[in-house]
Structure formats: structure tokens, C-alpha cells
Input
Amino acid sequence: MREEKGSLFLVATPIGNLEDITLRAIRVLKEADLVAAEDTRHTLKLLNHLEIKKPLVSYHEHNKREREGFLLRQLMEGKKIAFVSDAGTPGISDPGEDLVRLAHENGIPLTIIPGPSAAIAGLVLSGLSTGRFVFEGFIPVNKRARRERLDSLKAETRTMVFYEAPHKLLSTLRDLYEVLGDRKIALVRELTKVYEEVVRCTLAQALEKYEKEAPRGEYVLVVEGLDKKALEEAARSAWDSMSLDEHVDMYLKMGLDRKEAIKKTAEDRGLSRREVYNSIIKKV
Ligand code: SAM
Output
């Protein structure tokens, strides 16, 4: 079996419901020499539930550099290390990614024990298109980086999947609405737990809801991609009766930037960009 050769095992664990653990994950945890965990207290609860006793070592965002040497030595000596993150699939918005790189760079055999991931579970429950999607994880907190990330998603046509903590939900909804315009969204929370819930609405409706009530639990936000065809059709029928200014303004409201709005208006009307630009400038 493949895992007999492997020394690093990336083990997916439940995202809420403790029954969501595979038979293979349990066996690998039992057979490991060492369990490296993002949060040892959290993982201890899981191991106790599974009646598994193992040496535990922490490996998280703030100690990963100093722990790498130790873990690498253990792996080089042929030890079997199981890595588990707080919940779900290690490496998806948690420190597993660096451990995988370390193993590859040092020729350490590794494998995954697949299982739950909030992103996939949320996407599937969202009811939005799953054919093509893009995982965005947590959007940056830093104002500028955040704006840049959101701007880069304006013309994204694939369904977008985000992670968000409850205390940041409202500001994220505000920013998504401001940059992407009003779109369909599914707010999926408490997946696999008692209060699992999917709220399907638009970004404007979500904002209205969470301005009145405090968000609770962990969220996966699934936002529909830009519907280019519908956008173009709506635009075509709308601009017939519009002035050039209104035409450009319509695209600005749809989330395009000024340059793109002028370009689209010029294309629609069979004019040059300069003609559109000049006409707008004259009126300012
Ligand atoms: N590696 C994990 C995975 O594969 O799902 C994700 C880790 S990330 C640090 C944690 C985020 O995942 C949370 O802030 C939340 O957005 C999402 N999440 C985790 N568990 C969830 C749940 N039960 N319901 C909804 N979202 C969840």
C-alpha cells in the first residue's frame, strides 16, 4: 500500500461532525509515530474521541519555521508523521502547505488522507454553479491588498469561494458589494454541525440581514461569477435610449473601472474611445 512508503501523512479531519473521519485516517493516526497538529489541545480532543494516544507536537503559523528542523530530522530518520490542521483538509488556508513543500524539497515521501474541506462542502451546498469555481480563501485584511484582491475579481466569471470569520463578515460583505456590485451569494455556516445553515440571497440582501443581526459561527461565502452574456444583453437593450454619459455610467455601476467603461461604451456604439472620452470630458 502506498502509505507504507510514506513518511508524512496529511490527514483530513472533521469540520464539525466528529463522524466525518475516514477509516484510513483513523488507521494512519494510530500507526503514526508522531502527530503534528496546528492546535494540540484541539487535536487532543479528537484523538481522545478516537481513543488514540500519540505524542503530539504543535506546528502552526507562528512556530512553523523553528519546528521544521525538528520535524525534518524525524522524517529523515524514517518516522511516520501525521499532520492535522484544526479542521478539514491540511494545506487549505492553514499551515500544511509549507510542510508539504518541505517534504518535497527534501525527498520525503508523502501522501494525503483526503476528507472534508469547508470550501468544497460550502460550494456544493450553495446551489450556485459548481462547474467552474475559484477558491479565494480569506481575503487580505490590509486595506490596499484587500482592494487589489477584490478588484482582480471584478471580471471573474467563475463561482468564487471565500472563507470568513464571523467578526469580519459584515465588512467583507460591504467590500464585496462595493466592488463586485449586487450578485447572488450563498452564506454557508456551521457546516456539518447542529446549526448548519445556507442563506441564499444577493449581496445587498445579505448586507441588510447582517446589519441587523450578529453573524454566528464560521462561514463559507460563495459568490456567483460575473455573468458576461447577461451583462452584455442587458447593456445592449438599455443603452439605446441613453446619453453617452449615462452609457459609461451604467458600466461603472456594473463594477467596471473608468477605462473599461469607456472602452465598452465605444465598442457598443461603434465609436472610438477618444470620441467617448472627449464627449464625457466636455461635460465635466
Ligand atoms: N483547512 C480547512 C478546510 O479544509 O476546510 C480550512 C481552514 S481555515 C483556517 C478555517 C475557515 O474554514 C473558517 O474560518 C471558515 O471560513 C471555514 N470553515 C471551517 N469549518 C467550517 C464549518 N464547519 N462551517 C463553515 N465554514 C467552516
About this structure: The first strand starts at residue 8 and ends at 11.
